[in-house]
Amino acid sequence: MRTKLRRLENNLRRLVGRPPRFSAFGTKASDALRSTYKGRSADIFFTNKSHLIHKWLHYLPIYDQTLEPFVGTKVRMLEIGVSKGGSLGLWRKFLGEDATIFGIDIQPACAVYDGEAASVRIGSQDDPQFLRSVVSEMGGLDIVLDDGSHVASHQRTSFNVLFPLLSEGGLYIIEDMHTAYWPSFEGGLKRRGTAIEFLKDKIDYMHRHYRTRGLNTEAMMPDIESIQFFDSIAVVRKRKQLPRYHVMAPSPESSP
Q1: 71 CB-near residues (< 8 Å, 6+ apart)
Q2: 211 is a domain residue
Q3: pTM for the predicted model, two decimal places
Q4: Catalytic site residue 54?
Q5: Which residue in 51, 54, 58, 150 is the catalytic one?
Q6: Which CATH number is 41's domain given?
Q7: SS3 159
Q8: Are 27 and 201 in contact (CB under 8 A)?
Q9: Tens digit of pLDDT per residue, the chain (256 long)?
């Protein structure tokens, strides 16, 4: 059965064409790019002299727009995926010294970055027990940035475990969602279970009280306030919603 499915997927890929290679999007830092991308995160990125930071440039203004309200606060941030350690340094400079920042990675070599800009713990984003233990050590959670394996099933596991642990008003950010279209990451256009299709289902969940009677109550309202899509990034904001009512003001009975 699996062999037949694999053949079918390969045939579909031949019909729709192969996605571009990752290397096709690569370039080098230049004065032109530095002048194009401005803002807090861009300044930190382009002046970095420490551990390697590898970012898509169009993410930088998204970081500013999304995370600026947390600058200088005691925010608790978990980054999934440590890689070369530079991203944790970016967040330390961006958020400030009062922030609690943890990074997790499945690669034991990443432990070398523990205690520099952030705390680092080694384990899989696909391991619910490990994820819960890290959040417990952090003392809570306000921001999650999933820049980990980018494998669809791993992204779903991390979201299902960590989103319920977010504080009110907290953010869950999934990066590099273009992998939802790449078969090597369990992706494909409109393939069930990718991060993009998973979050499309969450949009339906946000509106379920308009589809099913009896759900427009305080107890049954969803805890997703918004889902914001950018190119390759989605930001989900957690906040328990109030029942929905439409009202006229002034009310007809009080009109002169």
Answers
A1: 40, 94, 95, 96
A2: no
A3: 0.88
A4: no
A5: 150
A6: 3.40.50.150
A7: helix
A8: no
A9: 555 555 555 555 544 567 766 665 666 777 767 767 789 999 999 999 999 999 999 999 999 999 999 999 999 999 999 999 999 999 999 999 999 999 999 999 999 999 999 999 999 999 999 999 999 999 999 999 999 999 999 999 999 999 999 999 999 999 999 999 999 999 999 999 999 999 999 999 999 999 999 999 999 999 999 999 999 999 999 999 999 999 899 877 766 6
